[in-house]
Amino acid sequence: MSVTLRLRHVLLAFVILTVWASAAGASEGDGWSEIDASGRSVRPIVFPVDGGVTYVDSWLDPRGSGRRHLGVDMMGQRLMPLLAARDSCVTTLEYGGPGGSNYLVLTDAEGWEYRYIHINNDSPGTDDGQNPLAWAFADGLRQGDCVTAGTHVSYLGDGGNAEWATPHLHFEIRRPDGIWINPYWSVRAAEAAGGNGITGDPSADKELSLEMPVRGERCAPSVVPDGTPSAASAHGYWLLDRSGRVHPFGGADHHGDLRDVESSKPLFAAAIEPTATGEGYWIVDTTGGVHPFGDAAPLGDMVGVELDGPVRRIEAHPGGAGYWLVASDGGVFTFGTAAFHGSTGGMDLVAPVISMTATTTGSGYWLVASDGGVFTFGTAAFHGSTGGMDLAAPVIDMTVHPNGSAYWLYAADGGVFTFGRAGFFGSAPGLGRCDLAPSVAMRVTNSGNGYWLATSEGDVLTFGDAAWYGDRPLMPPGEIVIDMAVRDAPPAAP
Predict the structure, then answer these.
(1) Cα–Cα distance between 46 and 42 in angstroms, integer?
(2) What is the Cα–Cα distance from 168 to 106, expressed in whole angstroms?
(3) Helix (H), strand (E) at residue 266
(4) Is the pLDDT of residue 24 over 60?
(5) How far is residue 68 from each of residues 19, 64, 65, 168, 314, measured CA to CA in Å?
(6) Residue 360 contacts by C-beta under 8 Å, 6 or more apart in sequence?
C-alpha cells in the first residue's frame, strides 16, 4: 500500500470518527440523528435533474464550522428542471421571498426523504437574488401536494449559502429511521439506468386492471364471493382526504379541491358529491361551506350560520340543480331545487345523524344515525335498520339501490347490512385481511350488483361488478381519506 493510500485511509477513518462523534452528541434541533458513514446503499430513484450535470462522490467532505457534506452536489445550468425522485408528497416547501432562499423536501410512502437545496432564487438571465416564485418551484406546487416520480418540482440554482458558487443541486436522501445515506450511489444507479433507477418507466402507461389486487396480510381465508368487475360499473372515482385534496382514479378528472380556496383558517372536508355529468363535484367542509368545482353550480351554503352540529354530508338533487346538507343533529338544509321533507333536528336521538341519501326522484330522503337507525322523509320507504342490533362497529353511512327499492348500511369495520332487495356481495371483514384501516365510504354500482368500500388509508375494495381503478393515493404523513365519490360509467354507444 502506498504512503498516499495509507494517508487517505487514515484521513477517512478520522472523518468517519469525527462525524459519528458529532452525531452522537447532536440534539434533535440539529435536524439529523445519525449517518451511514461508509455504506453504499442504493435507493431506486429517478435522476433528479433534467439535463446534463456533473457530480462526484463528496460524501462527508468538510464544509467548515465542523460540518460535513451529507449530500451530492450536481453541477449544472441555472433553471434546469428538478424532478421528483420518487412518488412522494411535499412535506416541506420553504420559499424565502425576495432576497431569500428556497428548499424542498419530498417524502415517499415508505417515509424516505429527498431534499433539494440551493433551489433557484434568480430572475431568468440574471443572478439578482430577487427570488421570483415562478422560477423557484413548479407552477402551483404547494406543501402537501403529492407528485409522481419524474414530475417537475423546482429549478436548479445557487440559492442559500451557494450564492457565489456554480449553480447546482445539493441532493440528500434520508431513511425513514432518520439516517442519512450517501445519495451518490443512488444518483449514479439512476443515471446508469437511463435516468430512472426505478423498475419500469414511471411516465409509461400501465395496463389497467379492473380487479382489485390480492394483497395485505391475511388473518383468515376470504369468504367473499368471486366478483365480476365490469367497466360498465363506473367510469372512475375520486377519493377525498380530510384536508380537502381530491385524488382521482380511472376516468374521473381532477377539477380542483380545497387547496384552491382562499380561507383565513384551515378548512376540513366533510364530503364530496359528483354532478350528474361527472364533469365536476361539490366539496362541503365541516362548517357548512360548499365549494363547487368543474361544472358544479354554486347554490349556497351555511357559512356564517351557527349550527347545532357539524355538517356531515352533501347530497345532490337528481336533477342536478340543487342539493341538501345534513348536520350531525339531523338538521337538513336545502338549496336550489332540493325540497325540504323533514328532519330529526327536533328529535331526541339515541345517536348522532351521520349521513343522508335522496330517493331517485328527489322527492324524499333517508337520514341514518351512527347506531344504524334509519329515518324516512317524503317518499323514502323504510326497509329496516340496525337500530336494535349490537354492532361490532358504528354505522357510518348508507347507499341506496339505483332503482330506489332497497339500501345498504355499512359500518366502520367494513361490515355491510342489506335491506329490501339489496344483494350482498361481500364485506371488508369477509376478505380475511388484517391490514385494513377503518372504512369511510361505500358506493353502489350503476347496476346495483356491486359496490366499493373505501378505507381511511385509501384502500378501495371492490365487490360484485365494481371495477377497480386504483387506490392508496399519495398523501402527507398523518393524512386520511374521509369520503369517496363515483363518476358514472359513460353511456353505451348507440
Answers:
(1) 12
(2) 18
(3) none
(4) no
(5) 7, 8, 9, 18, 55
(6) 318, 400, 402, 403, 404
Q: What is the rounded distance in angstroms from the CA atom of residue 43 to the CA atom of residue 88?
A: 14
CATH number of the domain bearing residue 429: 2.130.10.10
Is-contact 183 112, C-beta < 8 A?
no
Same domain, 177 and 86: yes
As a whole number of angstroms, the distance between CA 205 and CA 156 comes to 28
Query: Cα–Cα distance between 246 and 249 in angstroms, integer?
Result: 10
For residue 5, give the amino acid letter.
Answer: L
Which helix (DSSP H) or strand (DSSP E) does residue 482 occupy?
Answer: strand 481-487
Amino acid at residue number 453: L
258 and 150 in a common domain? no
- Grid-cell match 360484485, residue found: 464
| Dist CA 150 CA 186 (whole Å) | 15
Domain extent for 87: 3-192
CA distance 115 to 19: 20
Domain identity same for 184 and 239? no
Say which residue the cell 345523524 belongs to.
Answer: 353
What confidence tens digit (pLDDT) does each residue in 347-395 have? 878 888 888 999 999 999 999 999 899 999 999 999 999 877 888 889 9
Residue 1's pLDDT band (cuts 50, 70, 90): very low
pLDDT at residue 66, as a whole number: 66
Asked if 279 contacts 272 with a C-beta cutoff of 8 angstroms, the reply is no
Query: Running DSSP on this structure, what letter comes out for residue 467?
Result: P
Total domains present in the chain: 2
Contact between 412 and 394 (Cβ < 8 Å): yes
Query: What span, in angstroms and rounded, lies between the C-alpha atoms of 487 and 237?
Result: 5
Of the candidates 490, 441, 30, the one whose C-alpha atom is nearest the C-alpha of residue 278 is 490
The predicted model scores a pTM of 0.67
178 and 62 assigned to the same domain: yes
Does residue 420 sit in the same domain as residue 311? yes
Distance CA(470)–CA(473), nearest Å, equals 8
How many Å apart are CA 408 and CA 487, to the nearest integer? 20
209 within domain boundaries: no
At 293, which amino acid appears? Answer: F
DSSP 284-318: EETTS-EEEEET-------TT---SS-EEEEEE-T
Q: Which of 192, 221, 244 is the last residue of a domain?
A: 192
Q: Which of 166, 192, 218 is the last residue of a domain?
A: 192
In this prediction, residue 209 carries a pLDDT of 66
Could you tell me the CATH number of the domain that includes residue 175? 2.70.70.10
DSSP string covering 403-433 = TSSEEEEEETT--EEEEETPPP---TGGGTB
